[in-house]
Design a protein that fits this description.
The chain is α/β, with parallel strands linked by helices and about 250 residues long. About 40% of the residues lie in helices and about 15% in strands. Strands 7-6-5-4-3-2-1-8 form an eight-stranded parallel beta sheet. Helix 3 (about 85-90) links the parallel strand 3 and strand 4. The protein is globular.
Length: about 250
C-alpha cells in the first residue's frame, strides 16, 4: 500500500520557551536550511511567544499553531485564548484534545467536538489528539477507546471538512515516558481510526509518544502513519530538522 499523503511533523513545545528562546529556535532552525519539498512542519509555541514567533518565521514554510483554544470567539472566559486571538497571532493550526488538556483541564470529548467545529468555521486546521491510558491498553480496550474519541470529535462534521483535519494518535502511556508503541502496533490502531469516520481516508494521521529522530522513519514507513506529533524532541533546532529529514521514509 503506497500513500500519497504528504508527511507532517508537528512540534508541541508545551510549557517550554520564552519569547527569546522561541524566536532564537526559529532563527537557528531556518539557518539549518530545512527541506520543505517533501515534508510539512509546524511548531506550537506557548501563547506568550506566538506573535513573536510568527514574525520570526515570516517568509518561511514553517507552520505555526496554538496548543489549544476556547470554543468561543470572545466572552467572559478568564484565562482562555480564543480562535480569533490565535489567528491574530499568526497561527493557522491548533492542537485539540491533547491528553494533558483532558487530564489536567477537564476537557471532554463533547467540548473537543465543539472546538473542532469552531476551528473549521474560522479556517484553522485542527490536530485532534486521541489516545488510551495504560489501563485501557492493558485491558485490550485501545481500539474501542480511540474509535469512540474520534467519532465524537468529528460528530456533525462533513466528510470534506474531516479531510481538512489531522488526527494524532498518542497512547498516553507513551507520552514523555521514553516508551513508544511499535510501528506495527501503532499502525494497527491508526487503521482503526482511519476507518472510523468518513473523510479520514484522506486525512493525515500522526503518531505521538516518545518520537525522536531515531524512530520516526520506522513509524512513517507504515501505511497509515503520515508523520508525528512530537514533544521533547522538537525543542532543539537540529533535532527538529532531523525529524523532518527522517520522516521522508519510503511510502
Amino acid at each position: 500500500m503506497t500513500s500519497t499523503r504528504r508527511p507532517l511533523v508537528a512540534g508541541n513545545w508545551k510549557m517550554h520557551k520564552t519569547i527569546g528562546e522561541s524566536t532564537g529556535f526559529v532563527r537557528e532552525f531556518l539557518a539549518l536550511d530545512p527541506d520543505f519539498e517533501a515534508v510539512d512542519a509546524v511548531i506550537f509555541p506557548p501563547f506568550t511567544a506566538l506573535f513573536a514567533t510568527f514574525e520570526a518565521l515570516a517568509g518561511s514554510r514553517l507552520g505555526l499553531g496554538g496548543q489549544t483554544m476556547c470554543e468561543h470567539e470572545s466572552g467572559a472566559f478568564t484565562g482562555e485564548v480564543s480562535p480569533l486571538m490565535l489567528l491574530d497571532g499568526g497561527a493557522q493550526w491548533v492542537i485539540l484534545g491533547h491528553s494533558e488538556r483532558r487530564a489536567y483541564n477537564g476537557e471532554t470529548d463533547a467540548a473537543i467536538n465543539r472546538k473542532v467545529h469552531t476551528a473549521l468555521r474560522l479556517g484553522i486546521t485542527p490536530i485532534v489528539a486521541v489516545g488510551e491510558s495504560a489501563e485501557d491498553h492493558a485491558a485490550g480496550r485501545t481500539h474501542a477507546h480511540v474509535v469512540r474519541q474520534t467519532a465524537i470529535a468529528f460528530d456533525g462534521v462533513t466528510d470534506d471538512d474531516v479531510a481538512r483535519c489531522v488526527v494524532a494518535y498518542e497512547p498516553i502511556w507513551a507520552i514523555g515516558t521514553g516508551l513508544s508503541d511499535s510501528p506495527e502496533g501503532a499502525n494497527d490502531v491508526m487503521a482503526q481510526i482511519r476507518g472510523s469516520v468518513a473523510g479520514l481516508e484522506r486525512t493525515r494521521l500522526l503518531y505521538g509518544g516518545s518520537v525522536k529522530p531515531e524512530n520516526i522513519g520506522a513509524f512513517v514507513a507504515q501505511p497509515h502513519i503520515d508523520g508525528a506529533l512530537v514533544g521533547g524532541a522538537s525543542l532543539l533546532p537540529q533535532s527538529f530538522r532531523d525529524l523532518m529529514v527522517n520522516a521522508r521514509a519510503p511510502r
